[in-house]
Write a structure and sequence with these properties.
The chain has strands spanning 3-13, 18-27, 37-44, 47-52, 54-59, 62-70, 78-87, 90-99, 101-103. The chain is mainly beta.
Length: 117
């Protein structure tokens, strides 16, 4: 195994209509010439969208990431999420299927994604 990719939360921000997906990435093998790329795809109803996640490098081998995906989905709507992290020499993947939980409405300077899978 070259890496471990984790989806830690999937929720709907009722203020913006975005699906907010958060997680972490642990590398066990060097990325091979750069930073990993994390792409997140969410399907809700007939909508499918893919975005690149923003990530923070916590240690040389550990990252946290977040993706905000615009949607018109509602609370408790079935959603499936696929996350793919790529490096020049390997790829890691994680997935989630379940219902969108609605995260509480909080101020914009706090982190959303309080709904764990």
């Amino acid at each position: 195994m070259s890496c471990a990719l984790l989806i830690s939360s999937v929720g709907l921000n009722q203020n913006t209509g975005e699906i907010i997906i958060q997680g972490s990435l642990q590398l066990f093998t060097a990325c091979g010439g750069g930073q990993p790329v994390i792409n997140v795809t969410a399907t809700c109803g007939l909508q499918t969208s893919t975005v690149s996640a923003s990530f923070n490098q916590i240690t040389p081998n550990f990252y946290t990431w977040i993706a905000n995906i615009p949607t018109t989905c509602a609370c408790d709507t079935p959603v499936s999420v696929t996350v793919v992290s790529t490096c020049p020499n390997y790829t890691c993947q994680a997935s989630f299927s379940g219902n969108l939980c609605c995260c509480p409405q909080v101020s914009t300077n706090l982190v959303y994604g309080l709904c764990s899978n």
